[in-house]
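User: Batch of two.

Assistant: Item 1 of 2:
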Amino acid sequence: MKTGLQNMKRRTIASLPPYKQYTIMRMKPILAISLFTFALAGIGCQTAAAQATNPNRIYQLRSLKVAKLTAAGHSINAWVMDNAGKNEEGMMFLTDKEVKSSEGMIFLFPSVQPGDRNHGFWMHNTLIPLDIIYISASKKVVSISNGKVQDDTSLQAKGPYLYVVELKAGTSKKLGIKPGTKFDIPASLKWAD
């Protein structure tokens, strides 16, 4: 049995001239396809948002500050790692798709770190090879190490450093960054702990 509203709709369409009935009947599949397309677009947006969250990371990229660095005439958008927790996680668990060639990370420290065997970076749980660039307090490159995927070897600087910048492997060579290269690092970047 049909409700009054359903009967009213039928009577309304039925009372229209035949050419209008035909137009309305043709529009139903178009409306259904449009709604289906919008639903898929919504699912696509949800998938993109879900991909932006890396379930293995504590500090999601979207929640990190980004600083614009310049070296050898090239700009680098660097996620700012300004406390002990962020420094520990670094680029762990990031995939190649999550990091563009113009992106990297800058690690800040509360004071100058000695370039000795007790201080350095490793590639534990790091899924992409990296250039690890040690930078002095005067913002000049001290040395560059090549980090291999998931390698727990400590990679030391060849001198004291206050900053470390990590880029995808080969990027420093491609951009002409080498020992002695001056980095433009915003003075506003400070250790947060």
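Item 2 of 2:
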Amino acid sequence: MAVAIEQIRSEIVDALGEVDSVLDVGCGNCDLVRFLARRVAKEAIGIDIKAEDIREGVQSEHNGEPAIAHCKRGDARQMEDFPDGRFDAAVSVHALHEIADPHAALCEVRRVLKEDGLLLIADFTKGETRWNEDYFTPAQVRRMLHKAGFGTVHVKKVRGEHFLFASATK
């Protein structure tokens, strides 16, 4: 049984709680960004090298206040549009394995996170055969996060699945 998007979203909500701003690295069609704006952040911004520019106002499910969901074309390896310490948190779902230079992207994510900001990664692991992609092992993800300069790093593989959740603090 594959890890459902509902489980991934639940992990994100549990890990992040409520924050002012969150970055979705590899946002794809912007669905997760909309969810983040409704459930987690006052402002959710997603970047993807193939994204279309989408900016929407949504209503927070927590307090009914307006929140912003914005997706735009961008490269995780070079996020010069964002200043240092711009985001409280960042997420990357089904995307780390897609990035041409994950080290450069992780260093950039760390740069744009505020001090003590949290990065949450959800991705397939080596051994997964869907989409015929090259995935990382949990140990590789742990090493990449440490090499990018993250402090506290936790990586857990989902039992019985080729899937992991990783969290890292700046």
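Strands lie at 19-25, 41-48, 54-59, 66-73, 87-93, 113-124, 153-157, 163-169.
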